Amino acid sequence: MPVLAALLAGLIFGAGIALSGMINPAKVLNFFDLAGAWDPSLGLVMAGALAVTFVGYRLVLNRRQPLLAPRFHLPTRRDLDPALIGGSALFGIGWGIAGFCPGGAVPALGLGQPDAAIFVIAMGAGIAVTRWLRS
Q: What superkingdom does the record give (predicted)?
């Protein structure tokens, strides 16, 4: 059952990303182009996501346990280590160059966008290299 719930959540997320146009790298890159063809829609999508998340966390975390798990799996660390800062910077740089993030690339891949395939392959390679370096 948890796998089906995860699949359903992923499909809803992917549909939202696709409907909002965030699978289009040009639309994402235009958000970062403040001096040119600036498009605020990514900011609006992010604001909507934050609002839903804020309400969702308030409702869900009032429960003693999740519906499909014995306990909540919440982060316990609050420090900023070099891996977190470096990974965040690398994520942002890659997003600004490619116009894709994993949340937009996977739905775009599912809709047959060729640029997304290149991004997903590169992302997979980056994950593999990171795991290799950590081991």
A: Bacteria
CA triple 98-116-103, angle to 5 deg: 80
Q: Are 99 and 28 in contact (CB under 8 A)?
A: yes
From 44, 49, 75, select the one nearest 61 (Cα to Cα): 75
Question: Which pTM value belongs to this model?
Answer: 0.78
Q: Got the DSSP string for 90-127?
A: HHHHHHHHHS--HHHHHHHHHTT-HHHHHHHHHHHHHH
Q: Using one digit for the tens of pLDDT, what is the confidence trace for 59-114?
A: 999 999 998 889 999 999 999 999 899 989 988 998 888 899 888 999 999 888 89
